[in-house]
Amino acid sequence: MSARGQGFASRHVLVVGYGLTGRAAAAFFARRGIVFSVSEARALASEDEAWLAAHAAAVEQGGHSEQLLADVDSVLVSPGVPADAPLLVAAARRDIPVWSELDLAAAAAGDRRIIAVTGTNGKSTTVSLLGELLTGAGVCNVVAGNIGIPFLDVIDRPEPWDVAILEVSSFQLEQSRWFHPHVGALLNLTPNHLDRHGSMAAYTAAKLRLFAHQTPSDTAILPADLASTLDHGRGRLVVYDRPLPDLPRGSDEVGEVRRLNLAAAVTACREVVPGFDAATRHVDELRAVLYLPHRQQPAGDVRGVRLINDSKATSPAATIAAVRSTPGPVVVLLGGRSKRGGYDELAACLSRASVRGVITFGEARDELAGCLSRAGVAHAVVADLAAAVAAGLDLARPGDALLLSPACSSFDAFRSYEERGVAFGRIVRGLPGFTPPVADS
Known about the structure:
By secondary structure, the chain is of the alpha/beta class. It folds into three domains: about 5-95, NAD(P)-binding Rossmann-like Domain (Rossmann fold, 3-Layer(aba) Sandwich); about 110-290, 3-Layer(aba) Sandwich (UDP-N-acetylmuramoyl-L-alanine:D-glutamate ligase), CATH 3.40.1190.10; about 295-440, Mur ligase, C-terminal domain (Protein-Tyrosine Phosphatase, Chain A), CATH 3.90.190.20. Helices cover about 35% and strands about 20% of the residues. It has 17 helices and 20 strands. Helix 5 (about 125-135) packs across helix 11 (about 255-270) and helix 13 runs parallel beside helix 14.
């Protein structure tokens, strides 16, 4: 395998972490006859144990020890494992190279083109739009990455593809040594994941690794305000928002946030398809990817109160965007595991918006309540999501919106934002007076 000057060759690989990425890596190595072992911090599911017993050289679960490093010459790390994890520090001390999934999959992709999209908000929508727009332009593509399909899982698909469209996170980029997209897009940048990165400067540095290995023949796409302040590397700079490119017809109807997602997607399409004309499409054709599940998704109605599922809003900036996009009055449900930054700005936004009140829940409820108190925002504090829904509906009046837009990760009580969004839907569907959204009727 080669990846634009970088190669992957290993006698024995240690896969650290056995979630989506770890499973994809193990299957990738098994298909190629590459010897691998697995280290997983949690207990493995029985089906994973059975598969690994048949394919892996060695397996440990319930913690990461250094003992498996004795017989390996490279490490493949899952995004959820922080760079300062003792096992990775030990690997570095022994001069064992640590690869990210992005590095490995890009090497395996060969000469096929890669578009990578990152940013604090809008990544999933933008890569989904890119997939739809390029398919409409006759370009065979796959959408993968942090959107929920590991890049390694699509490398060996029997269906041919020419372009990989990747949603990439700060966790993935932080780990990458050589990842090199032909087109890289940074959508926006606001405080997020400070619990992992420690500071806004470190979070920014992780995001900018998107451009670190680009050459002048590659393209770096940014909004104008970031293009003027951040180092985008050696790629050719293209600004996507000043002015906006020609967008699909009817784009004025979708709101500012989604127009910016469209603008970034159209700009990236132009780098792949010369003369790409977005005006041949109408936003109605793109509605399924413009309104992805758990992203400002209508969830029904209870006694005249509109329910909105925005569980994907795992950062303060995403919640600010959702509040600005939701006609008021609105009752906002905030809570989960803290991101350790941006909540004072969110509280200030809520103090100026048409917000009837805020309910905080989960692990971060008291931290959030403190920020809201300082900003003079009316709020109540409850234990969990079910209690938050009940308290929010008690506060809301007919014509209001009840907006689940947590501004926090889900990991205090749920395995993912999707699971949290599904739980929200289950809770509201069980309430007296619930009416499903029109599309579900």
